[in-house]
Amino acid sequence: MAIRSLWLTFFMALIWGTSFPVSKIAIDIIGPYAFRVAGSLMSCLVIFIFFNKTIISSFKMIDRSAFIRIFIIAVPNVFLVPTLNSIALHYISVTNATILVYTMPCFTSLILMAISGKVNIISLFSLVLCLSGIMFILKEVKFGLGEAVILCSAIFWAVGAIISQKIVSTIPFKARLFWQMLMSTILVCATYPFFQSGELLQPISKAFVDPRCLMSVLYLGIVGNAVAYYIWFYLIQNESAEYASYATLLSPVITVIIASSFLNEIPSIRQIVGFILILTSAVLVNFLKPFIMKLREAR
């Protein structure tokens, strides 16, 4: 595991750890889907500004096969997961959403072990710890519509991580990220009228006028989406889907600290113990497993 990947892991955890609390501010004002539209548009603009040369040069490389590959990766990762997260945050607290969305690494490990037909002891033990932590916390959570939506998001996130690792594309990494964001934005805009009740344009325009909404949109669009997904796909490409998945488990600590400090969501003792178990599972996969694999390769 490269030092660069380790630093990027902590940076991604910091970004996603702050994304839910910041997103919640705008979602409570303009609704989840209007927020998704505004954030998606901002993400596409930011990525194009930074990587426009690579993006323009990739036009010639996009054929039918490349388009399908990018689309398959984009749908679960960049369209479904952020959209379901936004919808869930409309119904439940930041703390509850954080608890359930980070069941994703558990699903990732389960799917990967099922695909390979092999059981890795460290992965299995990490999975048990992660599930134990989640079940410990769930006793504090009332399961409703929002919880069901965020759990679906976790499943799609796990599937998306594995798909991203399995599907090989010849399109440059930076250009591929833009096309995924663009496809997601088109899907979000196309489905927006079906999920948004009342005025369609007014909530979106308010997202760029209201100071609190604008802050959330800028943060999510520039940092929470553009930068975070760049790191996410980089870790999948250069490490593994499982590594990237468990790396996200560092985020809940940051989220809970922010939620308790600014949103008055104080975690209980059960939640704290559960988080400790979850973070232990992350340490096993992120540090112990790569170390053991490195020792085996050295032999």
TrEMBL record:
It comes from the Bacteria. Its main location: membrane. It is a multi-pass membrane protein. InterPro entries: AA-Vitamin_Transporters, EamA_dom, EmrE-like. The chain crosses the membrane at residues 34-54, 66-84, 90-112, 119-138, 144-165, 177-195, 215-236, 243-263, 269-288. Keywords: Cell membrane, Membrane, Transmembrane, Transmembrane helix. It is found in: Cell membrane. The keyword Transmembrane applies. The keyword Cell membrane applies. Residues 6-138, 145-286 form the EamA domain. One of its GO terms (cellular component) is plasma membrane. Belongs to the drug/metabolite transporter (DMT) superfamily. 10 TMS drug/metabolite exporter (DME) (TC 2.A.7.3) family. This is Threonine/homoserine exporter RhtA.
